[in-house]
Design brief:
By secondary structure, this protein is of the alpha+beta class. Helices cover 45% and strands 22% of the residues. The chain contains 6 helices and 8 strands, in the order ββαββααββαββαα. Strand 3 and strand 4 form a beta hairpin.
C-alpha cells in the first residue's frame, strides 16, 4: 500500500514525542521519505504532513502565479513560513513542537488521519467535530442530488 489511509490516535510521551502509526510509517518508508514536510492548514486546525513531493506540489502552484503580484508572495509566505520539516526518529516518533500545538490545539494525544498522498495531525476532539461537519455536508449533498444520478451511481 502506498497511500495514507485510515486513522489512529496516539499519546504524546513525557519527552513530547508521538509515534507515527505503523501503517503510515510503512508508506513513508515505501516512498523513501527521509524527512517529512508539515504545513499548518489554512482553514482548519490541522497539519498537512507528507514528503517533499507535497512541498513540491505547493511550489509548482506558486510558480504559476505572477511573481510580481501579491498572490505569489502570500502563497510563498504560507507554504514556506507556515511549514516545517519533521524528523522521524529511529523508533518512528516525531517531536510535537509549540509551532504544531499552537495551530492544532494538540495537548496530550494526536489523531493521525490518512488523506491519500499525505496525512493530517489533529487534536482528537477537534477531529471528531470536523468529521461530523464533513458527514453532515456530504449527507446534504447526497439528499439534494438528482435521484436519476443516484440510481446511475448504484
Amino acid at each position: 500500500m502506498d497511500r495514507f489511509l485510515s486513522n489512529a490516535v496516539n499519546r504524546i510521551d513525557a519527552k513530547g514525542r508521538v509515534s507515527v502509526p505503523a501503517h503510515f510509517r510503512g508508506v513513508v518508508q515505501k516512498r523513501g521519505y527521509s524527512e517529512l514536510y508539515a504545513l499548518r492548514a489554512l482553514d482548519i486546525p490541522t497539519l498537512d504532513v507528507g514528503g517533499l513531493d507535497l512541498l513540491d506540489r505547493y511550489e509548482q502552484r506558486i510558480a504559476l502565479e505572477d511573481p510580481f503580484l501579491q498572490t505569489a508572495d502570500d502563497m510563498s509566505f504560507f507554504c514556506h513560513g507556515d511549514g516545517m520539516f519533521l524528523k522521524l526518529d529511529q523508533d518512528g516518533r516525531i517531536t510535537v513542537t509549540d509551532f504544531m500545538r499552537e495551530h492544532t490545539g494538540i495537548s496530550s494525544e494526536v489523531a493521525f488521519v490518512g488523506r491519500g498522498h499525505f496525512f493530517q495531525m489533529w487534536e482528537p476532539e477537534r477531529l471528531r467535530a470536523y468529521g461530523a461537519q464533513v458527514r453532515e455536508r456530504l449527507l446534504k449533498l447526497r439528499q439534494g442530488a438528482d435521484p436519476r444520478l443516484m440510481e446511475q451511481a448504484q
